[in-house]
Amino acid sequence: MGKFGKSAEIVSEEWLKAGAVHFLASDAHNITTRPLRLKETFDLVAKKHGENLAQALLVENPLAAFEGRPLPVVPELSPELGSTDSDAHVPRRKKRFWFF
């Protein structure tokens, strides 16, 4: 949804289009600063990629995993994954390490 920057948004879209995503979930920390936003996510995925994919990634596959069943929807991985020039659009930050 773009809340973690343009780079995360671009990569997420690439992975969805390439069939590299089996689940969408949240690591909601609390209800004020990082609330659960799965309904908004469902609506966005449904709008961009179709209701069937949203249902699979946010309802059917997570439920199957929780119940220990095989995933009902396993997207086929596109051979084009990683072959785009999207990295050229988003500058990467340098990783910084601090040792004490």
How does this structure look, described?
- With 100 residues, the chain is mainly α.
- It has three helices and no strands.
- The chain has helices at 6-18, 38-49, 51-67.
- It has one domain (6-88).
- 6% of the residues are buried.
Number of helices: 3
Rough shape? globular
The amount of helix comes to 40-55%
Mean pLDDT: 82
Summarize this structure briefly.
The protein is mainly alpha-helical and 100 residues long. The chain is 42% helix and 0% strand.
Q: How are the secondary structure elements laid out?
A:
Elements: H1 6-18, H2 38-49, H3 51-67
Helix pairs in contact: 2-3
Key words describing this protein structure:
single chain; 100 residues; mainly alpha; 3 helices; 42% helix
